[in-house]
Design brief:
By secondary structure, this protein is α+β, with helices and mostly antiparallel strands. Helix content is 57%, strand content 7%.
């Protein structure tokens, strides 16, 4: 519909902000959500020990491994929301993992049970992914054989994908409960958006949808804006208060302004 296209066009900035927020929760959460810092794992059966994995960053004494970064990049295949966004590089993947670690730590401190999704919710989301994600459709993931082939092709497992979905749903629910509830959009704000943003998009002489018809969608746009602002401020506060250390110089650009690069002082 014309009015729907106009509203979407008028909210491009909001959508961009929400995509940024979604990137923090879209890829899989680290399977080592509460993993303490440990020395690198090595192949002790070789003549010379060969490092198989290593710690690349530490977030409040929680280690992020190189394998976590690699897995983060592989799991983006399950995120159709990345369309039009930059390719997920190791630096960006680490930045996502750092942000997510801070969020998950806060969830654990506040009320982890309130945000925990049920198995039925995880199963429902998995069914959607197997039917809708473009990369999955090409493998005919709706069938068990196609799904197994898809997982093998992307070096994933059923257990890992379910963990990804569980943490994603958990964080989205936490955001909903913490920031969305209690926000009220005044009728004057809806009218102002309609008058100042939506109406000017219509060429002279073209029929403009009445306010009462588009008011619910305008209210949703304004609500999303406020949620994004609150979430962004909250996450920045977590970064300032947290202790983030990037140990891999090649990933140092992923460090936040409040993080510390080892040896970079």
């Amino acid at each position: 519909m014309r009015e729907q296209r106009q509203i979407r066009a008028g909210s491009k900035q909001v959508s961009a902000c929400l995509r940024t927020l979604a990137l923090l929760v879209a890829a899989a959460a680290s399977a080592t959500a509460q993993r303490p810092v440990q020395p690198p794992m090595a192949d002790t059966h070789s003549v010379g020990a060969v490092v198989l994995d290593r710690v690349v960053a530490v977030v409040n004494n929680q280690a992020i491994l190189a394998s976590d970064v690699d897995e983060e990049m592989r799991l983006t295949v399950l995120d159709p929301g990345r369309g039009g966004l930059a390719v997920l590089t190791p630096k960006l993947a680490l930045e996502q993992l750092i942000s997510r670690a801070l969020i998950q730590q806060q969830i654990r401190q506040e009320d982890a049970e309130a945000a925990e999704p049920s198995q039925a919710e995880v199963d429902a989301r998995l069914t959607e992914i197997r039917k809708e994600v473009p990369a999955c459709v090409r493998f005919n993931c709706a069938s068990d054989e196609g799904w197994k082939a898809f997982l093998a092709a992307h070096e994933l497992t059923q257990e890992r994908v379910e963990t990804y979905l569980r943490y994603r749903l958990e964080i989205l629910r936490f955001i909903e409960q913490r920031f969305r509830q209690g926000i009220r959009i005044a009728p004057e704000e809806v009218k102002a958006y309609y008058r100042e943003t939506l109406v000017p998009q219509y060429p002279a002489g073209e029929a403009i949808p009445p306010l009462d018809k588009v008011a619910p969608r305008i209210e949703e746009i304004l609500l999303e804006r406020q949620v994004n602002v609150l979430f962004d401020d909250w996450l920045n506060s977590l970064r300032k208060q947290g202790d983030v250390e990037v140990l891999d110089p090649s990933l140092a650009a992923a460090a936040t302004p409040n993080s510390t690069e080892k040896g970079g002082k």
